[in-house]
Amino acid sequence: MSNTDISLLDGVTVFTKKAAMRNGSGIGNSIVNAGEISPVQAYIKLRYIRDAAVAALAKVEPVAIEMLGESEYETLGVSSKVRDGYARYAYDHDSEWKELKAGIDELTERMKERQKFLCSLKEPVANLSTGEIEYPAVVTGYTKQSIVLSDK
Question: What is this structure's pTM?
Answer without folding.
Answer: 0.67
